[in-house]
Write a structure and sequence with these properties.
- The protein is mainly alpha-helical.
- The chain folds into two domains: 57 residues, no CATH class; 42 residues, no CATH class.
- It has four helices and no strands.
- It is globular.
- It starts with 6 loop residues before the first helix and ends in a 6-residue tail after the last helix.
């Protein structure tokens, strides 16, 4: 999907994804802005790129009602990993970058 005027942002996301595939590690990106400027379309483009390279993609969404819940995003992520893999213990360790037993 080509995004009009989003070449630099698309390139940054693609480079991060390509770096993970090449063994160079990952990164984090904060995408923010006013409603309707194309944040979701930009991330959908990155998702398409990652999926084409064989990555599994997990989507998470912020919920205003949970802004006071500590680590709400992490909880949502781990619940999603558990639902996809059926392995609750492994998902906690995967987030921490360790293997069970370490």
């Amino acid at each position: 999907m080509a995004l009009f005027g989003r070449g630099p942002q698309t390139a940054v996301l693609a480079a991060l994804i390509d770096g993970v595939r090449g063994g160079g590690g990952g990164g984090a990106v904060l995408v923010r802005g006013e409603p309707g400027i194309g944040k979701s379309a930009l991330l959908a483009s990155a998702e398409t790129h990652a999926s084409a390279l064989g990555f599994s993609v997990v989507r998470l969404f912020g919920e205003p009602a949970r802004t006071g819940v500590p680590f709400a995003g992490l909880q949502q992520f781990l619940a999603t990993v558990h639902r996809l893999t059926g392995e609750r213990r492994l998902s906690r360790f995967a987030y921490l970058g360790r293997k069970p037993g370490e």
